[in-house]
Known about the structure:
With 424 residues, the protein is mainly α. The chain has two domains: 1-220, no CATH class; 229-424, no CATH class. 86% of the residues lie in helices and 0% in strands. The chain is built from 16 helices and no strands. It has helices at 2-29, 32-51, 56-69, 73-109, 113-123, 132-140, 144-168, 172-201, 215-218, 222-265, 267-290, 294-329, 337-363, 366-391, 395-403, 405-423. The relative contact order is 0.11. The mean pLDDT is 81.
Amino acid sequence: MARNFGKLLRGRSVAAILEMATVVVLARSLSPANFGNIVLIQTYVLVVRELFNFKVFEAIIRFGVPMIESNEEKSFKQLLRLTLSIDILSAITATVVAIAAAPLTARVLGWDDNLTSIAMIYSSVLFIFGFGTAKGVLRLFDRFDILSKHLIVGPVLRLMGVFVVMLWEPTVFLFVVALTLATMGGNIYLNVRGWAEIQRRLSGFTLKKLSIKGWQEDFPGLKGFIAVIYWQANVDMLPKQLSTLMAGMFLGPQGAGLLRLSSEITKILSKPGELLQQVLFPDLVRMWNKGTSVFATLIKRALSVSTLYGLVFVAASVFGGPMVLTGALGEDYAQAAPLLSLLMLATTFELLATVLRSAAYAMGHAGKILRLHLMSSVLYLLMFTVITPYTGLIGPGLAACIATLVPLVGTWSLIRYSLAKKAG
């Protein structure tokens, strides 16, 4: 697990540097308002993507691990045909919806015709976003080296694209075109590598008989699991994306841009948490099923490392945030420093909750975890709406700090109870 996490962390670390470089190029090439408009367009497409993202890679791990260990290759192939069908249908539907709904979104956010057209162009990236099956297969067969490379491919292409635009003609339209093509390229890379791994591991696998029929009979419990993971993903991501759109409504494009900028920096914390969950989950499932005592020890170690990691960045943002923002982006962006520190603290809480969520999933508590995160998301959006008009830019940070404590405390209590019950 440590080896696989190291592979993903190396890829994510390089990707984080590249993504921040991309943000710096955009921010320095555009005014805060125009930078905010690009952020709002990206956020709109991300919201649509999450609405049609069923996270089928989690189902491949949950149901595929027992099949592979029991040499049930035929059933596993059928599972992949099902998840591929979901990927394809989701991508097509998301693209159509995003393009069709762009004019309505433009009315809410005050976009002109030019920005609306740009949003439609960027919506085309959704046609290539269906890579859940590829991601699941690579995780299942321990190809974290490929996943690590994929983490870098997209950011490299995006940085190259915005850098060329900056030197040529730095406009919102050309920046969005560059980001669109680069994102598509990264997604195509993952799908190609995933398909190659399927062909290498499963002889004779074809795309014939792709269908979503019969999945309840062939895979009992799969529909419920995908439903829980789907809602969990939306509960995790949508409030954060909606908060950017809400910041655009309350604080204007500049406020939305500063919130997105701060959130982008906090990915230094949040992304390793996602990677750690990907690495922990398959082995925690095996450990819990076998009843090994290493289960609790592993959780405690992961929490200790995560706490130390988070506190380092919280301290760095408090003492060095204003200087870094001013030096890298200019004085107009320094006002985001207090928000950045609050979001770093909230992300540390979220990082710990992510570790605990892997354990809770392995224990079979996915439904309860979903309810905890749903409560947290509702609380966040409610506090965001109430606080932000009075506190300004720090409102989203205060709301995030309070709301992220709900799943952290709740999941910890649930795990302690389950461990005590199993031991007794």
